[in-house]
Structure formats: C-alpha cells, structure tokens
Amino acid sequence: MTIVAAAMTMRENDKVILSCAVTGAIHVPTMSPHLPVTPDEIATAAIEAAEAGASIVHVHVRDPETGEPVTDLGLFREVATRIREESDVVIQPTTGGAPTMATSERISVVPELEPEMASCNMGSINFGLYPALDAYDEFEHDWEREYLEGTRALIFQNTFADLETVLPTFRACGTMPELECYDVGHLYNAKHFFDRGLLEAPLHFQFVLGIHGGIGADEENLAHMIRVAETLFGDDHSFSVIGAGKKEFALGTQAVNVGGHVRVGLEDNLYLRKGELAERNADLVEKMADLAFETAGREPATPAETREFFGLKGASAVDF
Ligand code: KMH
Ligand code: ZN
Fold first, then answer.
1. Between 20 and 30 A from 119 (CA), which of 8, 165, 173, 189?
2. CA atoms of 60 and 25, how far apart (whole Å)
3. Per-residue pLDDT at 6 exceeds 70
4. Is 289 helix (H, G, I), strand (E, B) or coil?
5. Which ligand does the CA of 97 lie closest to?
C-alpha cells in the first residue's frame, strides 16, 4: 500500500528512535501481573528497555502498594534517580498523568525535575477506559473498577488556556515537549501555538491512535495524520507513533517504513503477540527493533544520537 504519495520533507533520521512507555495509567494491575508498579519495578523496566534499544523511556508513577496512578513528585524523582544510576537513556516523565488528574497537578513534574523532555498533550478528549471492564469479573484492588468506570463521564482536559500555561513552563525549564496528538485536530492546535511562538522547531509529535475518544488505530488514519503533519510542519517536524492495543507493531512498522519513529511498552499494549502477555517491556522493544531492521534496515538510535537529533540539553544538565 502506498501510504504517503508525496515526497516527505520532515526531519530525517536513518536510525529509529524507540521509546518505551513502561507502565502508564491506562492499564490496571489486574490486567497483567507484569505491569511495573513500585519505583524499583518501574526503574528496572526502564533500564531493561534501554538495554533492548529504547533511547527514550516514558515514565508514569503508581502508588507502590495499590498500583493506582499518582503524581507523587518524590516517586518521580526516585524512579529517575534509580534509572540514571544505570543508564544514559533519555528520561521522559509524563505530564498526561491520568485522565482523572488536574492539569496543574500533571505539569508539576516539569518544574520539579526540569527533565530533558516530557510528554505534552495537545488537546482535550474523551478518554474511555471503561470498555475494558467487560473482560474482568473481579479486580485485585478496590480502586480499579471505579477508576475504569469513571472514565465513562470524564474529559481528559488540555484546553487552549491550559496549554497557554503549560507550554511556557516547558520553555522556562529547558524541557522539550513531545507533542501527544490523539486526533488530527490536535495537529492544528499545535500549528496554532507554533504560529504564536509558544512552540518552536524542531517539533516532535507522538501520534496516539486507538484511544477510545481519539482517532482509531487504522493504517489509513495514520497515513492521514502523517500527511497533515507534513503539510503543516514540513521539515520543522518529526513524528513517532503509538498504536494503542493490538495495532502496536503494525502501526509501528508502517511508521518506520516512512521514516517515522515508534513508541511501544506496557502503557500502550500488554501483549507480545495474540494471546501472550508480554513479560517485560524490553521484550516489546526488542520485537519492534527487529521489525524496524527487517522491514526498513533501520537500527535503534542511541540516547546520544536521540539527544543530538532533538537538541536536548543533555543528562548532565538535569539534577537527578
Ligand atoms: N497514555 C497515552 C495514550 C502522556 O502520558 O502524557 C499517551 C501518553 C500521554 O502517554
Ligand atoms: Zn503516558
């Protein structure tokens, strides 16, 4: 299938930047015994993912006892410090947190850690996790059912006003925003802020396909997002793709074949293949690295190459 007709002008990189999102806030512990929960489990998963080829690790934290997503800055620092003891991987904290958290709470990790990079969500959406309830009769922890059920009536809020506060915070901290776009309109939101000077090149997008409330995880949808980004941003941008759920590897392969980058990890997908839970985040990274090489001859970028490509301030400029 020809998925992008015109020649691409986006920023080129022969290597593929693999990100690994090791735990997130979408899945609950009942869904997989392999979901990292404690700071030690999260850090170990991140270190192993880096060893398998990820040059960025995307980090959320959870209550170590219950696995509930939290924004505890002490836990973020603990995880980051522990990763840094053993790896030079780019540590990318979330500012998406969980759809249940306030925007002001979610952004607080940026001024606290002043990381090289953090996720930045480019628009509001419904963020429905409740369909997963059908697959489970019982839950390990009391909070899980209510958490999933609550998303039926919840908006993941990232308004224009929110972004008018969030984007200057990134800039003040020297933190590069990775722009999470859950639908095509979010690219136009990014264009709006780019034109106003609140975002500056180079821009790096994470196209998130497959969230219930955002664009579906289909090849045609990804091709469309790539085309729109190309039209709006040309050589000012690069992109990576999350295929949430079972399309993780199909959409990842589509992305690498046209010069894009890929995120995998238990935040987005619990399965290594149909019916087989992934035991380690590193196994997902390894599988994607193999696919990228087999289908496009692209090797994983090292953390140093990723820092250079994005112009990140570097690990030595970060205090953890
Ligand atoms: N949870 C994903 C769908 C964030 O943490 O800021 C996207 C994400 C956003 O990782
Ligand atoms: Zn996340």
1. 8
2. 7
3. no
4. helix
5. 1
Residue pLDDT, tens place only, 201-240: 999 999 999 999 999 999 999 999 999 999 999 999 999 9
Give this prediction's pTM. 0.97
Extract the tokens encoding 137.
Answer: 């009769």
- Ramachandran region, residue 24 (left: φ > 0; alpha: ψ -120 to 50; beta: rest): left
Tell me the CB-side half-sphere exposure of residue 303, using CA atoms within 13 A.
Answer: 21
> Given the structure tokens 């992109």, which residue do they identify?
239
Grouping H, G, I as helix, E, B as strand and the rest as coil, residue 145 is helix
Q: Report pLDDT digits (tens) over 175-208.
A: 999 999 999 999 999 999 999 999 999 999 999 9
Q: Are 224 and 216 in contact (CB under 8 A)?
A: no
Residue of 19, 22, 56, 58 best suited for mutating to test ligand 1, as the one with most atoms within 8 Å of CB: 58
C-alpha distance from residue 163 to each of 24, 70, 111, 149, 306 (Å):
21, 21, 15, 27, 25
Cα 169 to averaged position of ligand 1 atoms, centre (Å): 18
Cβ neighbour number for residue 315 with a 10 Å cutoff: 18
Q: Extract the tokens encoding 24.
A: 């997130």
H-only helix segments in 116-181: 142-150, 160-173
Cα 79 from Cα 74, distance rounded (Å): 9
Handedness of CA 154, 159, 165, 167 (dihedral sign): positive
